[in-house]
Amino acid sequence: MIRWLLVVSLFFIVMAGAHLLIDEKGYVLVSAGVYTVESTLVSLIFILLMSLAILVIAFKSSKAIWRVFGGLSKHRANKRAARQEAAFEQSIWALINGQDDSLSYALQKAEFPEKWRDQQCAIQAKAALHAGQKVVAREYLQQLSEPAQSKVSQLWLAAEQQEQALESLTPQAQMKKASPTELHAYISALLQAKDWDTLLSTIVQRHKQLHWNEQQWDSFFNGYFDAITQHTDKDIQSLQSELPRALKLLSHKAFIAVCVRTGQLAPVRKELIKLLKKDQLDELAKILQHLGGADIELRKLVQSKLKKQPEQTELLFCLACLANGEGDHGLAAQIFDTLSKTPWQAMWQHQAELAFAKTGQYEKAYLLLSDQQS
Q: Origin, by domain of life (predicted)?
């Protein structure tokens, strides 16, 4: 623009110069309607040049003022962005370290950057759940964008919103190439929603895609069999026997543990007797530590073996568990009085507290509990 103004100015200067060379001032008449302007060419050029100078000065001044205000605005924007990034970083570290107070403070201090707004709502929901505020957590979860809602299934479940969790998880989980993470979340939602048929069919059909280790399978089947026994009248022995061979092997350890905990020893009695006869006493003791029922046959076999090994602590512990299961808490308490002379083992704790409490020896039970907590 300035280049064109210079060209026009140069044109008028040339015209004025030509008139000066021939000793003529030049005459200009401008008429527009009822308005008329008369001037010499030199005066007109001078006015145009002054106007041009004023326009250039005004343009540059406004540009400088705009740059100043724009710089201030940009500075404020950068400062706000830095504050948002700092709040996001503090929240993430507080979340990782489980520092609920620091997390709440960081969330209140500033908003997250716009691109992390879903993550902020999810973190706020998690903090609310830690504080036991499930209603508040649901409000934050509902503020999530639709794609983000499918990524927080565990939060939906913790907020007791199984239907919402399943609604967001089902489309991804039913895809052939669903990821192990999506399938794991879907299975957890089905387990919590007590949709046993869908859960079982999903496990049978998709178990190879989960890539779980032995510990993860134990955890799942323990929770699954426990839920079945608590909420249904289904026979877990039948359920376990109907599983494919690969899953039957993976569920075997959990099946035994749940049968022992619920006092259903008949289906696993042969397994327990086999451990006893093979002198796998430590394994047998670990299984019986959560015994919730009685088995006279197994007790007789343990007592028979104790006659040959009267000082065997694992056998004594197994007998104490079986005695507790039959309601003979006096015998169990006597055994634990003997065992307490040796270094105490963590797996004895539950059965010992039960025996002492049932026989009115509350001080001993309290001391055991205090020692465990300390």
A: Bacteria
* CA 148 – CA 144 distance, rounded (Å): 6
The helix, strand and coil proportions of the chain, stated in percent and rounded to the nearest 5, come to: 75, 5, 20
Query: DSSP alpha helices (H): ranges in 131-280?
Result: 134-142, 146-149, 153-158, 162-173, 180-193, 196-210, 214-231, 236-241, 245-261, 269-277
Whole-angstrom distance, CA of residue 366 vs CA of residue 255: 32
Token readout for 143 is 């503020």
* Whole-angstrom distance, CA of residue 236 vs CA of residue 242: 10
